[in-house]
Specification:
The complex is a heterodimer of chains A (435) and B (120). Chain A has 435 residues and is mainly alpha-helical. Chain A is 67% helix and 0% strand. In chain A, helix 6 packs antiparallel against helix 7 and helix 12 packs antiparallel against helix 13. The chains are: A mainly alpha (435), B mainly alpha (120). At the A-B interface, helix 4, helix 7, helix 10, helix 15 and helix 16 of A face helix 1, helix 2 and helix 3 of B.
Chain lengths: 435, 120
């Protein structure tokens, strides 16, 4: 069964025998034939296709759990307010992010600053929850996470400032507009800044690879970490809301926001084959609709066929809308297509974050906090200075911006590599000295 | 200018009402009576039991991290307006900020050497 020798023979026996007994007793049908896998009606099993409702059932289960509080006389009002506060401010940050030129609730002239200010309030709820639990391990966990949060918060804000040098505005809409005017997404001018922000955004949203408030070996959990209570669900929801906010900020500042690839070519070279990129959203969505239609024909069950046809209808309608706007006035076209590109980019960014999360192992909190304070923060400072020098040297010498910023990125990367080489040896030497 | 902030107020109310409604539903929908704290304690804190209270004080490294953040956050307060005006200031703006960040980096290097950034 597995390579590890069993610790206890008696305990291991039924585990090994159980699958054999099942396979010998009842003949397992081929997996393609789903209907025959369904247990007979007198047994209380639901049909397999109803398992899509499992997340919904889990939500209801969490919702109707009895309330649980820490045993040692905790302030329940504050403990209820803390997750409420966290989710509220996480949702509030969505306001400023422009989802296409037509979809933005309000365009503040201090947009980016507002998001940073709102975002850094999130740590309060976490510290409050663990402070109120009034046990030392939870408090230690909270303090550790807060220190961790602060180091990456500093690095990410410095990385954002390096991109702001190129815009001259904090308004999210004008940041996107500046990228259109300069004909370049800022990720190509400050690639290292984007990299730092990406790492920091994983850390700030408590995704595994870089940040982990707690690990299995040292269970210093959040108070409501046992998934039994709706307050825990709100906390969990906050983490996911935050990752979408971070993705929205990264897309807007570094990756062109709602601009399509090569967006500036529309005005610079009108009527060239580059315009064919405008067809991409419609074509991509139409391809999904066609896939759903073909998949519907292959389905054996009537219900699955219905679902696929329904999906085909939805995607087909969206494709028709996206293609139809090609013939609409320019403002409507850029508005609808902008939303398409923004959602695509945010999805890709969140996908990459989750990809990093499931690919890399989790690190202990001390090396990852060291990464924040000792490598990312000085790297972000050097990146800021290098970008500023690149802009000034372009102003004075007339060299292309692309060249000077690439030189700056090289200097920054060199500094980062140098820092990463001196850090471990030094701390190892200090540890040896202290022992 | 204040007109820009009216949508923020409205969304703040909606965003605040959403979890409040969820928590209100939770109050109504909890099917079982609240359990005694002793019964739930084992489920809440798995792993080793926590015996000490949190009021013992915490390690000084957390205070150092907090102080470091205050220093950098204060620097950031200057960096944001500077970055907005940077393209109009040219070489002068760069010189000013090089001086400022030079002092900051010197302090950072000193902290680095002292081991204040070592996180154990």
């Amino acid at each position: 069964m597995n390579d590890n020798p069993p610790l206890n023979d008696r305990a291991a026996e039924p585990e090994i025998q159980a699958p054999e007994a099942v396979s010998a007793g009842s003949e397992v049908p081929p997996p393609s034939d789903l209907e025959s896998v369904v247990p007979p009606a007198n047994e209380k099993f639901l049909h397999p296709r109803l398992s899509v409702l499992q997340p919904l059932a889990n939500t209801v289960k969490i919702l109707i759990q009895p309330e649980q509080w820490p045993a040692n006389g905790v302030n329940r009002v504050v403990l209820t307010i803390a997750p409420w506060f966290a989710i509220t401010i996480a949702l509030l940050a969505y306001l400023i992010v422009p989802i296409g030129p037509a979809f933005q609730t309000t365009d503040l002239n201090i947009g980016l600053l507002f998001i940073l200010a709102i975002g850094s309030l999130g740590i309060y709820s976490m510290v409050l929850e663990n402070w109120l639990a009034r046990t030392e391990k939870l408090l230690a966990s909270a303090m550790r996470t807060a220190a961790h949060f602060l180091s990456y918060e500093t690095a990410s804000a410095l990385a954002l400032v390096s991109a702001l040098l190129l815009t001259g505005s904090l308004s999210m809409n004008e940041i996107v507009q500046a990228q259109l005017d300069q004909g370049q997404w800022f990720v190509f001018y400050v690639p290292v800044g984007f990299g730092i922000f990406f790492l920091a955004s994983i850390a700030l949203t408590y995704r595994t690879a870089i940040a982990m408030p707690e690990s299995d070996s040292e269970i210093t959990d959040r108070e409501q970490k046992s998934p039994l209570h709706f307050r825990w669900a709100l906390d969990s929801l906050t983490d996911y809301a935050k990752i979408f906010v971070a993705a929205g900020v990264a897309i807007t500042v570094f990756l062109g926001g709602w601009l399509r690839p090569l967006a500036s070519y529309r005005d610079r070279f009108p009527g060239t084959p580059v315009q064919i990129l405008d067809v991409v959203p419609g074509a991509a969505v139409a391809a999904i609709a066609v896939y759903c239609f073909r998949s519907a024909q292959k389905q054996q069950e009537a219900s699955r066929k219905r679902v696929m046809l329904w999906a085909c209808g939805v995607w087909g309608t969206a494709a028709l809308a996206l293609i139809g706007t090609l013939f609409a006035p320019e403002a409507i076209m850029t508005g609808v297509h902008g939303a398409f590109w923004f959602v695509m980019k945010v999805s890709a960014y969140v996908y990459c974050c989750l990809w990093v999360r499931i690919t890399f192992p989790e690190y202990r909190s001390d090396p990852s906090t060291n990464l924040g304070w000792r490598i990312l923060v000085p790297m972000a400072l050097v990146n800021l200075l290098a970008t500023a020098m690149a802009i000034v040297s372009t102003q004075y010498t007339g060299l292309p911006m692309r060249l000077t910023t690439i030189l700056g990125a090289g200097v920054t990367l060199g500094a980062g590599i140098w820092l990463s080489t001196i850090s471990p040896t030094e701390s190892a030497a200090q540890m040896a000295a202290s022992e | 200018m204040p007109a820009q902030y009216i949508p923020i107020l409205m969304v703040a109310m909606v965003a605040g009402l959403f979890p409040l409604a969820a928590l209100a539903i939770l109050k109504r929908a909890s099917a079982l009576p609240p359990q005694a704290p002793e019964a739930t304690q084992a489920q809440e804190i798995r792993g080793s039991a926590t015996e000490d209270m949190a009021s013992d004080g915490s390690s000084v490294k957390f205070y150092i991290a907090g102080a470091l953040f205050v220093i950098f956050a204060a620097a950031m307060g200057l960096l944001f307006p500077w970055s907005i005006q940077f393209s109009q200031m040219g070489g002068y703006g760069l010189l000013v900020m090089l001086t400022f960040l030079g002092i900051l980096l010197a302090g950072y290097a000193w902290l680095y050497q002292k081991g204040a950034l070592d996180w154990r």
